[in-house]
Amino acid sequence: MGPADFNAPDTRICKEIRELVRDTESELLFNHSSRVYHFAVLAGLRRGLSFDRELLYAGAMFHDMGLTRQHSSQTERFEVDGANAARDFLRARKLPQSDIDLVWTAIALHTTPGIPQHMHLVVALVTAGVEMDVLGIGYDEFSDAQRRAVVSAHPRTPHFKEDIIQTFYDGIKHKPQTTFGNVKADVLADKDPHFHRIDFCSMIRQSRWVG
Questions:
Q1: Distance between CA 184 and CA 56 in Å, rounded?
Q2: What angle do CA 99, 130, 116 make, to 5 degrees?
Q3: Cα gap 125→179, rounded to integer Å
Q4: What is the 3-state secondary structure (H, E, C) of the chain?
Q5: What is the pLDDT of residues 154-211, one digit of tens each?
Q6: Whole-angstrom Cα distance, residue 188 to residue 142?
Q7: Cα-atom radius of gyration of the chain, to the nearest Å?
Q8: Total domain count for the chain?
Q9: Which tens digit of pLDDT belongs to each residue from 120-144?
Q10: What is the pTM (predicted TM-score) of this model?
């Protein structure tokens, strides 16, 4: 992995995104979002894909902005809040609406497994980066050197798993009505006494990552 593969795009918009996110998010979320970008890039390169790194960076860096006090609404899912923050930022910089819509979708869907991988590469790769950093999905598809390089540049906290769960809780606890989710799980839980939900927090704690 060379410097060109690792560094964020050296564009005015990406520099502004980095500055805004660093000033708005906690260090934990800023480093997490940065790792999401790098893992997303590596996943794309491993598959030999061509993608817009500037839009990917926007999606990765804004994906958790909805967990911050400044961008958290009372009624929307945090994913939508983050997507709206990215939309407003990119719209102010006169990006094409199609690019804005793409970044919005990537952020809005990043906690909806099973769908993003069938969509545009930017959408798919943002989710791939999130799933790697939070859940360890695809862990063995990255080399030890790649993982060390990403974490060295943007460290995980010693207890990242519990820290990220607490950060999610703090960001959504004031609007529990927005957590309505996968209706299929509700139907199975209602009808099948042997059905057990897949628990997000348990998946984080059981991931290959240490800490």
A1: 30
A2: 55
A3: 24
A4: CCHHHHCCCCCHHHHHHHHHHHHHCCHHHHHHHHHHHHHHHHHHHHCCCCCCHHHHHHHHHHCCHHHCHHHCCCCCCHHHHHHHHHHHHHHHCCCCHHHHHHHHHHHHCCCCCCCHHHCCHHHHHHHHHHHHHHHCCCHHHCCHHHHHHHHHHCCCCCCHHHHHHHHHHHHHCCCHHHHCCCHHHHHHHHHCCCCCCCCHHHHHHCCCCCC
A5: 999 999 999 999 999 999 999 999 988 778 888 999 999 999 888 999 999 999 888 6
A6: 35
A7: 17
A8: 1
A9: 999 999 999 999 999 999 999 999 9
A10: 0.94
Give the model's pLDDT for residue 3: 45
Specify the amino acid at residue 205: R
CA-nearest of 78, 92, 84, 83 to 181 is 78
Domain that holds residue 46: 3-205
- The C-alpha atoms of residue 204 and residue 195 are separated, in whole angstroms, by 20
Which percentage of the chain shows pLDDT scores above 90? 88
Does a structural domain hold residue 98?
yes
90 part of a folded domain: yes
For residue 62, being part of any structural domain is answered with: yes
- Here the CATH number for the domain that contains residue 143 is 1.10.3210
Contact 56, 45 (CB under 8 A): no
Is 88 inside a domain boundary?
A: yes
Please report the pLDDT score of residue 211 as a whole number: 66
User: What does the pLDDT average to over 46-62?
Assistant: 96
